Each structure stands twice: as structure tokens, then as C-alpha cells.
Amino acid sequence: MSLFTAVSTTLSTLSPSGASTGASSGAPDEDYHWLLNTLATAAPGTIGVVIIMFNLIGNFGNFNVICATWRSKNLQSKHGWLLVILCSEHSLCLLFEFINVYFALSGVQITRRSCLLYLSPYIFINFLQSTTFIALAIDVLLSFTVASQYRNWQTTGYCSVMALSPCVLPIAFLTRLWSQVSDEIIFLCNPPLSMDAKAVNIWGGLITSINITILLIYGYVYFYSHQTKKRTSDSKMAEKIMRSLTILVMVFCFSWVTCMGMVFLVDYFTENPIIIMLVRSYAVSLHTSYNRALPKTRKIVCEIERLKEKEIVRWSAIVIFAAISYSQTFYVYYIRSEMYRKEFKKQMCCEKADAATGGSVIRIVSRSTNI
């Protein structure tokens, strides 16, 4: 309740100029106050519901991928274990989102230094989940281009190198963050707000660059697979590989790239710190809506600017685009992969993995890249 009381108090104690404006404008000014209070009232509950929903949906799916791979030898390929690593990272990211929920609902003040302490593991894992998408793309590319060597590589060592070699990037970035961290009160704890302005741009630029790299690699794999389809007898393998991974990357791009793109690009569209803060919290295109807004909406934004930063931030909803990316793997593979779908159904019906089928299961992919 302290959240709503603080907002109402701030609205009722605006400067005299603000009060005179309300007096002159009459009922419309009351509408602005109503909208602001509605936003303040709805945001905390919305934050909690969204994050709880995605944790249930996402962790259910991620657990099924991990468990199915552990139970079924049919899925224990290099590609399969990389998916396990990806799902583990995604589940950890989803759980870390509850930190933001706590501060959004409780209204507890927190310093940027304390927030960064809580979120440093999240920021680290966040980088790794993006680079794991690159690892999945490179894995498919290697299975095409150096098939004989690829089959002979030891799975544990291969997956460890692919998943952990990018660790130097988040370590360097976190070192930069801690060297510039302040004790400013931020009132809401999520990755963009735990960083200084320059660090946010660096973070957004790095993640966006990683995403572009993913698209380039998958684009090359896509065209290479079509060429291979014409020249070899591996057409079915190429088709099944790209059918699942293309959808996975499309959802990833829609969700995570949208989120990071808005965090990174908002500075280029507006210098208003309030709008920048809101965009980085919502990760939606507030700037576009603001520029196209009617005069009434512009007056609402002006009203928002008169509130203290702590009241604004408490309204801020959690970023949901990233949560979509964290939750997608199971559902994409259930829909697009016959092998994974069969194993998931066995698992959810409590059937024994592999034992029922023995050696009769025909692997779709002969290069240890099961799809």
C-alpha cells in the first residue's frame, strides 16, 4: 500500500503551477490523475502475474528438456546437451526475475550497488545464454562442414568448450560495472537499472552484436543446408535440423532482440531521462507512442515528468520479451521435432525411456545432432 499512498501524495502535492493548471483545465486534468493512479495500481500486480506465469510455463518446459535428455540416449548428442545447457541458463534467468518482482511489489528502496550485487550472476548467465545460441548455430555448421571430425569429438569436452569459452566477455563486463557502480537509490532492481548509462549502452551493444552474429551464422547454415540438400543424400537431416532451429531463432529474435534493441536504441530517439527509464523497464517502444500521441497523451507525459523518479520506477513493469525467450525451447521442439516430441510424450506419461524401444529407435540425425 505504501506504493499507492506515495503516488497519491505526490499527485496531490504538486507545485502551485501544477495545481493552477488543473484548475484551469477542469475534468481533463482529473482524467490524467486517474490514469496515473491506475498505472501505479496495476503495475505491481501485473509484474507479479507475468513473472510467475513465465516461470511456470518456462521452467516446466526447460525441466522437460533437461529430464528427457537425461533419460533418453536418443537425445544425448552434442546438440542435445547444448540444449540442456541453454535450458538450464534460461531457468536460472527466469528465477532471477523474482528479484525484480520483490522490489516492484514491496517498494523497498535499494541502491544500485546492492542491486548489482544481487544481479551479477543474472547478468553473467544472461550473456552466456545468448552465446549458447551461437554455439548451437556453430554446432550445426560443424556437423555439415567437418562431419567426420565432428563425430569423433568427445561430447563432454566439446560442449564444455562451446558453452564456457565465452565466459571472458561477461567477466570483463562485470568488472567494468563494478568499477563504476554508485550508491544511488533506484527503487527497482533489473539489469538496465543496475547499470550506469554508459554501461547500459555497452550492454545493449554487446547483446545486439551477439544476436546479429547468431542471425548471420544461421543464415549461412540455412543456405549451406540447401546446397547440401542438392548435392548429397542428407537432405532429410538438413531439413529436420533447420526446421527446429530456425523456429527457435525466430522466436529468440522476436523476443530478446526486441528487448535489447529498445534498451540500446532509446538514447538515439530521445534525451528525456524519464522516457529512457520507462523504455528500459518496459522494453517497449514508448518513444513511438509518444511521438504519435494526441495532445492529451503529451500532457500525461508532462504530468509524469513532475513526479519523483522513485514513483515512476515503481510503476515500471518487468521486461517480458526476455522471459519469452527463456521459455520457448521445449514448446518449439515439441511442435517441430518428432524425436523430441516422442520423448516428451513418454516422459509426461511416465513411460520408461529407451527401455521400451531398445535398439529399434532410428536416429533421425546420424551426425550426433538430434532434432
Automatic annotation (TrEMBL):
It holds the Pfam family 7TM_GPCR_Srsx. GO terms for molecular function: G protein-coupled receptor activity. One of its GO terms (cellular component) is membrane. It is found in: Membrane. The chain crosses the membrane at residues 42-60, 81-103, 123-146, 158-178, 202-224, 245-266, 312-334. InterPro entries: 7TM_GPCR_Srsx, 7TM_GPCR_Srsx_nematod, GPCR_Rhodpsn. Keywords: Membrane, Transmembrane, Transmembrane helix. This is G-protein coupled receptors family 1 profile domain-containing protein. It comes from Caenorhabditis remanei (Caenorhabditis vulgaris).
